[in-house]
């Protein structure tokens, strides 16, 4: 769930420099974008299906959050261990194994709907996404630069945002439609995406490489994480904003479908998928349309929209009004998208180029903690409270976090 950043393509010697305006690089750009979109969509395929798993095996809302947390742990482990390795060995040598992991996860989903298999499949899928997200973003930037060397980065930024957040919204929409109108709802969505993943992997294998493998690789180490990047208060503010934005994304990727089915009494799988699409689509569209806004304006607008949207969502749950719930979710998604884009932009601006990967690794680690931690806490709360009461307390915690981000923003160098 990453916002694309301006990534410079690695320098090439005259003997290895890509052909300027190469048609292969232009085609490769769209192949990588499709692979990115397909993988991110696959990662959210289970979202509208969780109520079916609950009915089949008697899952509680808490267990759904455990399944989702396992996915987030897989992403974080992979980000720390392999998210930076493509700088040394090449983009395709990381992207193709990442797609392989997604394919294995699809086969696991197909093999059995039992809880142990579901947990393993979500962890494997998380490992693949952690390898793929940053690598695909960098590969897109480099292919764009090779194909259109004189153009701005606008096309890259728009396409990578659409592939990332758009994919996260598209997956639940497709699986919700298939679950609603086609047989075998716990098998067919995974079969469709297994075929798609295999197809894009074949196409990706033929795209140009944009990084020349180093003759002597650096000694391997996990990705470093540090908050010491010239503006510690600003970095902490950005990390808190990333945590808050991913808390909303995590809610709609894990247990929102169950709330709609059980609390609002709308069990439609298509509706559950459409809600996730609305939230992630709103986030992607907001990021694209506000590209010219200053980072401070994006952050402020994001804080206000996320807070107002979540308040509206909670009102919709208390009144059992679906329209109010949907409006709240859409507005909260817009706010989360803006807040996270502002956080990434702030970190990119403050970090020295040589330590930018380290700075972003720390930001993404905190963001994925926000993806899983609050949703898990909400699941624990539902063991003792009604879903509506638990969501109300979740909102209180989120408002406190958003207020903290606003205070931290004022104390950072960028807020003076």
TrEMBL record:
Its main location: membrane. PROSITE patterns: MFS. Residues 27-416 form the Major facilitator superfamily (MFS) profile domain. Pfam families: MFS_1. It comes from the Bacteria. It is a multi-pass membrane protein. InterPro entries: MFS, MFS_dom, MFS_trans_sf, MFS_Transporters. SUPFAM superfamilies: MFS general substrate transporter. The keyword Membrane applies. Keywords: Cell membrane, Membrane, Transmembrane, Transmembrane helix, Transport. Residues 1-21 are annotated as: Disordered. It is found in: Cell membrane. The chain crosses the membrane at residues 27-50, 62-82, 94-111, 117-141, 162-182, 188-205, 233-257, 269-289, 301-320, 326-352, 359-378, 390-408. The keyword Transcription regulation does not apply. PANTHER family: MAJOR FACILITATOR SUPERFAMILY MFS_1 (PTHR23517:SF13), RESISTANCE PROTEIN MDTM, PUTATIVE-RELATED-RELATED (PTHR23517). This is MFS transporter. It comes from Streptomyces endophyticus. The lineage of its organism: Bacteria, Bacillati, Actinomycetota, Actinomycetes, Kitasatosporales.
């Amino acid at each position: 769930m990453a916002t694309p950043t301006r990534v410079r393509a690695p320098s090439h010697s005259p003997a290895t420099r890509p052909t300027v305006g190469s048609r292969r690089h232009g085609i490769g750009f769209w192949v990588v974008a499709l692979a990115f979109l397909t993988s991110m969509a696959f990662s959210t395929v289970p979202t509208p299906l969780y109520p079916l798993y609950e009915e089949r095996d008697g899952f509680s809302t808490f267990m759904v959050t455990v399944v989702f947390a396992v996915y987030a742990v897989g992403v974080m482990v992979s980000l720390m261990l392999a998210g930076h390795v493509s700088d040394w060995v090449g983009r395709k040598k990381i992207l193709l194994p990442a797609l392989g992991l997604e394919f294995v996860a699809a086969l696991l989903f197909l093999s059995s709907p039992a809880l142990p298999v579901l947990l393993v499949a979500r962890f494997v899928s998380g490992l693949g996404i952690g390898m793929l997200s940053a690598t695909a973003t960098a590969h897109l930037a480099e292919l764009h630069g090779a194909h259109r060397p004189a153009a701005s980065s606008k096309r890259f930024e728009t396409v990578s945002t659409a592939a990332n957040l758009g994919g996260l919204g598209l997956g639940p929409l497709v699986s919700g439609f298939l679950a609603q109108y086609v047989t075998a709802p716990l098998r067919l969505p995974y079969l469709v995406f297994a075929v798609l993943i295999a197809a894009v992997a074949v196409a990706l294998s033929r795209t140009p490489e944009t990084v020349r493998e180093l003759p002597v690789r650096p000694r391997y180490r996990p990705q470093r994480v540090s908050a010491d990047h010239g503006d510690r208060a600003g970095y902490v503010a950005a990390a808190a904003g990333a945590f808050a934005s991913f808390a909303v994304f995590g809610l709609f990727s894990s247990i929102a479908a169950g709330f709609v089915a059980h609390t609002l009494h709308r069990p439609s799988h298509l509706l559950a998928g459409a809600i996730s699409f609305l939230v992630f689509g709103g986030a992607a569209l907001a990021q694209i349309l506000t590209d010219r806004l200053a980072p401070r304006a994006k952050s402020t607008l994001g804080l206000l929209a996320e807070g107002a949207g979540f308040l509206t969502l909670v009102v919709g749950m208390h009144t059992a009004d679906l329209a109010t719930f949907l409006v709240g979710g859409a507005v909260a998604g817009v706010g989360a998208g803006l807040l996270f884009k502002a956080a990434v932009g702030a970190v990119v601006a403050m970090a020295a180029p040589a330590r930018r990967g380290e700075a972003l690794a720390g930001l993404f680690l905190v963001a994925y903690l926000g993806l899983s931690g609050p949703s898990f806490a909400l699941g624990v709360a539902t063991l003792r409270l009604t879903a509506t009461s638990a969501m109300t307390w979740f909102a209180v915690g989120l408002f406190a976090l958003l207020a903290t981000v606003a205070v931290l923003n004022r104390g950072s160098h960028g807020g003076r």
